Request: fold
Amino acid sequence: MPRQLNYNARAMNLDDLDLNRLRATRGEKWQTYPEDVLPLWVADMDFPVAEPIRELLRETFENSDVGYPLNPRREGLPSMFAARMQERFGWDLDPARVEVITDVVQGLYVALLTLTAENAGAVVQTPVYPPFLACVADVGRRMVPNELVRGESGYAIDFDALRADMDAETEVLLFCNPQNPTGRVFRREELEQLAELAIERDVVIISDEIHADLVHAPHRHIPLATLGPEVEARTITLNSATKAFNIAGLRCSIAAFGSASLQNRFKSLPRHVLGGIGTLGLAATELAWTRGQPWLDEVLAYLDGNRAFLADFLRRELPGIRYHAPEGTYLAWMDCRELELGREPHAFFLEEGRVALGRGRNFGQGGEGFVRLNFATSRCILTEGLERMAKAMRSHAP
Ligand SMILES: Cc1ncc(COP(=O)(O)O)c(C=O)c1O
Reply:
């Protein structure tokens, strides 16, 4: 396998992102809005992909190596994922329990379809990444909403409400940790409580941990499946390299199963309905997990700086926005309800400030009046976006 590339890590200059390069990218982040709008919405980073991955992709094309890929199991991706989970989170995972799928949202849909009965109740903790809401409706399951509660130190799970809302037909809980959009990285005690309840009520947990590698110290990601064999046996963990390594367009993800029975039911759909990943996603994911860490460490340090800068800017220039800095992710969830904007805040900041943000309402119950801002960009672009927001506020007369 042509995996030994000559690469010397060299420091990236994340401060110096070229707007012309970004505007020339084909993805939805930079192509959805007119050129005068600064896009701080969809969860892609503006940073260049790690050089080893770029080099591998160049080499792949130079060798015209884009035929049908080898089965990912023979390529060894499940073992690489298991090794990475062991190294980073102490998770002792059997590679035989790992399936390679195209994307995490596909995993949510397939899990709901194959593991739950028609009209089964599915707990969704809002506000949440919008496909969590869509998948329950799309596959005809019944939503059991469980709104996260906001206290002085950020969002938390309302266990009393959860206990009360889960009925006998509730079969599954969709869990997002680290949580998008609130940025919570749940603590061991919270995970233990959740696991206990899932066992008591006999529900399966689909745990979307795609942001696991994007956690800010001193917080630490704990995979739910590491809490013990009983909870592991009822958990499907979804993960990928695409979010942390900024390669979402390459489509390659992981579903890890706590039991053979969950895995077999998930795989019961015909193989070609489940689809298959491409050569490039497979190659890039392998490289990200084996040699991408220096790049990720550098990016995380930069994101942490942006996180501090953003909190400080909001305090000084936009004090009407209520905000808890995220513990993980590069997403800022901002409560704009006290700004008295007279319209939804994403519309206000788009129309008056020419900044594109995520629309709070799309994240379900508890999202109304909020916006989500993606701060995975250069400090310079972030500053420009925030200054546009502050200026729009200054010229706004409620
Ligand atoms: C929590 C969460 N899950 C899933 C996804 C998307 O994953 P994929 O592109 O693999 O479907 C995102 C993207 O932002 C996300 O934030």
Q: What stands out?
A: The domain at 19-50+293-394 is CATH 3.90.1150.10 (Aspartate Aminotransferase, domain 1).
